[in-house]
Amino acid sequence: KAGVTQTPRYLIKTRGQQVTLSCSPISGHRSVSWYQQTPGQGLQFLFEYFSETQRNKGNFPGRFSGRQFSNSRSEMNVSTLELGDSALYLCASSAVGAGTSGAQETQYFGPGTRLLVL
Amino acid sequence: GENVEQHPSTLSVQEGDSAVIKCTYSDSASNYFPWYKQELGKRPQLIIDIRSNVGEKKDQRIAVTLNKTAKHFSLHITETQPEDSAVYFCAAGSYNTDKLIFGTGTRLQVFP
């Protein structure tokens, strides 16, 4: 099976612009979560999606949004980019999602999208 | 709030020695504790996980222990090899959510 894929892998934007990142989960996986990784803050949870519904959201401003499509692919959007948004954005997928099964399952990470805001 | 503390931040060992990384979590509802290894420029990869109904789990040279009362869990790597060099993250999760709270990471260097 192909692993989790993310596009684009690298992105350079300027302050004030917006960006959309894409994540394709492992085939058959229905749950997708997003994380921001920075040297200063580490790995921080952004959101989780299952069956096109956002189940949980981390402590990020409203400029960060996301969605999931019927094929389980997910996108996240960041509007009005700030310098501090420069980070590695990782998505992870799991088969069923703890929101349905109760217990957490293994989450498999994608390679990430490295965003640089100038 | 939810928090996971991880120590040490860096760890240097000689090849063949053991390495221990410790984490403490704050949310008593946490019941799932995965460990991820992230090599430079690569994605985090799960190396072992433990659930709250188990006190210890072992997979070859890697073991994890959990003390629910103290809210501590630890990663033990025995007979370390240079390819074990990476950043290791602990995390804590709960029921009904895929959200993971990650520790700040430990950079492990294994010298030949």
Number of helices of chain B: 0
Question: How many beta strands in the DSSP annotation of chain A?
Answer: 11
Strand segment tally of chain B:
11
Our Rg estimate of chain A from Cα atoms comes to 14 Å
Share of helical residues of chain A: under 10%
Helix content of chain B: under 10%
Q: How many distinct helices of chain A? A: 1
The percentage of residues in β strands of chain A lies in over 45%
- Integer-rounded radius of gyration of chain B: 13 Å
- How confident is the prediction overall: mean pLDDT of chain A? 93
The largest β sheet of chain B comes out as: 6 strands, mixed
Which strand-content bin applies to the residues of chain B?
over 45%
Description:
The complex is a heterodimer of chains A (118) and B (112). In chain A, a hairpin with a 5-residue loop joins strand 7 and strand 8 (74-78). In chain A, the strands form 2 sheets. In chain A, strands 2, 4, 5, 6, 9, 10 and 11 form a 7-stranded mixed β-sheet that branches. Chain A has 118 residues and is mostly beta strands. The mean pLDDT of chain A is 93. Chain A has one helix at residues 98-101, and strands spanning 5-7, 10-13, 19-24, 31-38, 42-50, 53-57, 64-68, 74-78, 87-94, 108-109, 113-117. Chain B has 112 residues and is mainly beta. Chain B is 0% helix and 56% strand. In chain B, strands 2, 4, 5, 9, 10 and 11 form a 6-stranded mixed β-sheet that branches. Chain B has a 5-stranded antiparallel β-sheet with strand order 1-3-8-7-6, with no helix packed on it. In chain B, a hairpin with a 6-residue loop joins strand 9 (86-93) and strand 10. Chain B starts with a strand and ends with a strand. Chain A binds chain B through residues 4, 31, 33, 35, 42-45, 48, 50, 55-56, 58, 90, 92, 94, 97-99, 102-104, 106-112, and chain B through 31-32, 34, 36, 42-46, 49, 51, 89, 91, 93-105.
